[in-house]
Amino acid sequence: MFLAKTASSTEWKAIASAVKTLVEEATFEANGEGLTFRAMDPSHVALVDLALPNSSFSSFECDKPYKFSLRVEDLVKLVGRSETKDSVQISSTEEDAIAVKLSNGYTREFTIHLIESTAASAPLPKLEFDAKISLTKTILEEVLGDIAVVSDQVSIQATKDKLTFSGKSDVGKAEISLASKDADVLEFKVGADSKATYSIDYVNGILKALGGVTDTVELEYSTKKPLKLTMKLNDQGAKLWYFLAPRVQD
Length: 250
Description:
- By secondary structure, the protein is an alpha+beta fold.
- It contains four helices and 18 strands.
- It is elongated.
- The model has no long low-confidence stretch (mean pLDDT 93).
């Protein structure tokens, strides 16, 4: 028996949107500790790792390991029918399907047929980073929006007390710096100067997918290494990690 219930639909909407940025099919794995998901996009540029501990649900049951795969578009459409205050309950069935119940006085029950996923499991990168910086999500989105005016790539350079974002193309160039003590900088640890370049579309895609579910973003990277973004989905331990490969020309 597997059952996971959240008090609102906020987390599930964010999860569905985030998964949709990478893959068309999603495989979730559950056990007594909670629910997880991990997948890499077909081009092997980005990876999402999601952990929802049992404490992040208002109700959670899983008496044995349970794995289910479904089309992401089906999940997006279903949670899209929910209101923010709707509780969302997902449970296993005796058929090859999952049952989904949305309720807030007005209850709707759905059954979604599962699929056989062809995707291989994605290994989690084992990396150590020289820079670890936490920013408000608002300032990161604003900075990327400004850089995107002139480039589809953003170079991020971290020194002892400053974080600089830059971009350039035939259109022109842009550069924005944040000091370690700025109000929008919540944590600033740089062990060694670091610089790498990443796709703005990929970063913007995951930030937009999460919407207002998180206010802060933890950014970790090193020179010519992947970018790791960590975002909380709620205050009960649910988190999403996003890994993005650097641009090869950097």
